[in-house]
Each structure stands twice: as C-alpha cells, then as structure tokens.
Amino acid sequence: MAEEGILEEAEFYNIGPLIRIIKDRMEEKDYTVTQHVYRVLQCQEEELTQMVSTMSDGWRFEQLVNIGSSYNYGNEDQTEFLCVVSKELYNSPNGLSSEPSHKAKNTEEDLEEEEQEVEEEAEAEAEAEEKGAANP
C-alpha cells in the first residue's frame, strides 16, 4: 500500500527515476518464486562437461552424485553420475511461468550484450594482429 502512495507522489512531482524504481518493486511483488522444478539426469564421465555446458537457459546445476564404481576395469567402463538440475517457476497473472521478471530479463540482456561486445573486440584485435603479421 505504501508503494502506491509513493508512486502517486513521484508521478505528481514528475520524479522519473523514483517512478521506475517503484514500478519495478511493484512488478517484483507480482513475480515471486513459488516453486522449483528438479530434474535428475544420468550421464557418463565423458558426457558430463558437455551436458552441463549446454543446459538450457533457466536451468541451474544443483548437485552431482557419483553412482559408478571407483574401480577401473578397462576403457569401456566409465564412471556414471547423476546430475541434479533445477529451474525456478514464477507466479504470474497467467499462472506459473519460467520467465523471470522484467528487471531480471533486462539484467540478463545487458550481460549478453556486454559479452557480445567483448567477443567482437577480441575478434577485431585478432584480425588486426593477423593483418600486421601478414604485412611486415
């Protein structure tokens, strides 16, 4: 209730940054975490790295359990693991959703943009070095 009052005052005095903060807080209340979904995946030692690195967005690594023998009987016997992963479900007006709030989405998008910019800069530097090496 207090946030609605503060929002009214901020809009009356036209304080833009405060209006955005209050609206974000009000939106966060609508997107509270209500459930976690867990999955248990079985994999062999050689598949573990690829499986963890290619997990879909929103899935988080929780636990790794070694279920194989500690003895090596040959090349074909690999250690087996159970990999526990989880995903948060948010309570939204349309029911449960795996989508984070608007604020969390913006943060993720900003990080992705920064990573892309760093990659582009690194590629440009590598190309410049290659051109410099090719033309002594």
TrEMBL record:
GO terms for biological process: positive regulation of cilium assembly; proteasome-mediated ubiquitin-dependent protein catabolic process. Transmembrane segments: none annotated. Residues 91-136 are annotated as: Disordered. One of its GO terms (molecular function) is cullin family protein binding. GO terms for cellular component: Cul3-RING ubiquitin ligase complex; cytoplasm. Residues 109-128 have a biased composition (Acidic residues). This is Potassium channel tetramerization domain containing 17. It comes from Taeniopygia guttata. The lineage of its organism: Eukaryota, Metazoa, Chordata, Craniata, Vertebrata. The gene is MPST.
